[in-house]
Structure formats: C-alpha cells, structure tokens
Amino acid sequence: MPLDRRSFLVLMGTGLGSTVVLAACGRQGGGNQAAVKGPTIAMLQMVDSQPPNEVRRGFIAALAKAGYTEGKTVNFIEKDAAGEIPNTTLVMKQFAGEAPTMVFAIGTPPLQAAMKEIPGKIPVVFAYTSNPWGAGAGTLPGASVSTGTM
C-alpha cells in the first residue's frame, strides 16, 4: 500500500521529531568514559519519571555498595526514550554499536527492544517489567521447551 505525500511527510516529521526529542532527553553519565577503566553499563528507561528513575537509582546504589563507583570504576550511559516506543529500538541499536559490558532495560518496551537489538554476547538485565517472558526474555517457568527433535 503506497503512502500519499501527506502521510509520508507526517511520518518523516514524526520520526525526525522523535529523534530530536530522544537526543535532547538522552543523558550520559560519567562524562569521562574514556579515562575510566571498568565496565560500561548502558541503561534505557521509557520516560524520565519518578518510578523508573527510582529503579535506576536503586540499581546504581546497589552497584556502588558492591564497589562500583560512577566515573571511577564503572561507566554509565543513561538514556530515556521520551515516551516513544520507536525510540527504544533506536537507542538499543545505538547501544549495540557502542558494545557496552551490560545493558539494563528499565520497563517492558526497553526490554523488548533489547531482546531484538542487543547481541547475545552482551548481557541484558531488566527491572520494572510487567511480562519479561512476553518481551522475549527467556521462557515461562514450567513451560515446556521444544528442542526440535523427535
């Protein structure tokens, strides 16, 4: 089904607008990532609001308690998707290109994007997710797994 000119322009404008919002809302922690020796943890949340922010802060606090100090022994790349589901895919593609040590997905849409875009060699951890199995993170406990053999 071909798009008429108006629909095409609306879609292009929406995509461009989402990209600008995403760039404006993206946050990078640490500031001196090249100078820090240690893991790089890329974090994505759907929106910049209190519940996911608290999850992110709790994750960072737990790492600090384990001896990982931001800017000294660990690098953080922190982004939010500005409430736009397509932005989760864009950010996860960016993360995949940067090859972080680990990805932390905060929320179901970021987890879904991570499961699609992050290579299997990069661990993905998640929180604040209503249905991780539906998002593609493993199999439901007790579910039979088909191996394809008879």
* Arithmetic mean pLDDT: 82
Main sheet summary: 5 strands, mixed
Distinct helical segment count: 4
* Molecular shape: globular
Radius of gyration: 18 Å
Number of E-state strands: 5
- Please name the CATH architecture of one domain: 3-Layer(aba) Sandwich
Helix-strand category: alpha/beta
Helical proportion? Answer: 40-55%
Structure write-up:
- With 150 residues, this protein is an alpha/beta fold.
- The chain has a domain at 33-127: 3-Layer(aba) Sandwich (Rossmann fold), CATH 3.40.50.
- It is built from four helices and five strands.
- It has helices at 5-25, 50-65, 85-98, 108-117, and strands at residues 27-28, 40-45, 75-80, 102-106, 124-127.
- The chain has a five-stranded mixed sheet, with helices on both faces.
- Mean pLDDT is 82; it is low at 16-33.
Name some characteristics of this structure.
150 residues, 41% helix, Rossmann fold, alpha/beta, five-stranded mixed sheet
Question: What is the fold's blueprint, element by element?
Answer:
Elements (H helix, E strand, L loop, with lengths): L4 H21 L1 E2 L11 E6 L4 H16 L9 E6 L4 H14 L3 E5 L1 H10 L6 E4 L23
Parallel strand pairs: 2-3, 2-4, 4-5
Antiparallel strand pairs: 1-3
